[in-house]
Amino acid sequence: MRYLPVLFLAATLLGCQPEQAAAPAPAAAPAPAPAPDMHTSRNALDWAGTYEGVLACADCAGVHTRLTLAQDGSFELFTRRLASGATPVMAQGRFEWEPGGNIIVLAGEGEPQRFAVGEGRLLRLDPGQTQPAWGRTDAVLPLAGADWRTGEPGLGQVLEDHRWTLVNAVDAGNQRLEALFPDPERAFVFGFAGNRLHAQGGCNGLRGAFGIDENGMLAVTGAMSTMMACPPPLMAADAALGALLAEPLATVLVPGPQPTLALLAGTGEALLLSGELTPTARFGAPTRLFLEVAPQTVACEGSARADGRCLQVRELVFDEQGLPVGEPAEWQPFAAEIQGYAHEAGIRNVLRVDRFGDGALYVLDLVVQSEVVPE
Q: Which pTM was predicted?
């Protein structure tokens, strides 16, 4: 029994030892840093190619600009101020990418030119600008189609293939010619067919013959117009346009999906027109139809109208003397839109319509008959 006190003392000493702290949990590994975005314009876009358009100009109607970028870092830059007698300028050199990989800098004399590179377009940046403002259409150069120069048609054919809308006009001091824009809802539209010019947008339509010489000078001869009386601003617009077209005008064509035509007067005025392909140029020659339109629309599916309803039409046939032939076709819903035609409820119309493609587009040519039908 001699050992009991010793064992008791050992147990007591062990029980008095301080408790050991629990081992700390291992620290969580730090979250990995987000990977840098490697999808820059430089490595994610097919940016090499030719870009062409009209850029803003402080003292002229615009600058016709064509910039070609090559994969080897070289560039070719063509510019021409849209002013009578302006001399085109050609520059070549090399460009560098800014660190972010989204902006290029053209090296050359004077202040470097910087362009943001986007999908199928470039945006010229102002000095010190860091964030692209793609909404500035007067600073954007669209990418030209890869084959747009192949078999490029002559100027006369381009003029005929497009409907040209006047979008800007300035005087010799680069001040807007407000007289040519009397109504924001209507603009002058030019059409060229063969050697004939037609312009409409003020009060009276203007028609005349035109020719373009080997130097690209456009001359309009034998101009005539209708003699309707209209509000003074519209009459003044006609007079202002007629005065400009009475003198030879230098032509500058800026190619593209929506080409720009500049008409430059020797006295400093400049007209800028935007082109849109005519239906015939897009789809080929049309098929002529005569459609009778019922007074009331009908419920239908797939309507192009804002109210979701359809015209009710049937096809008619006329002979060369304009007399009806055979029986009309059955009435049927017509879901497509007829450009140039606005239906009024309660009125029956017979329309002469041009159908382009396989019904891709219908365009009103003439209202042959019109009749109010009582309900």
A: 0.77
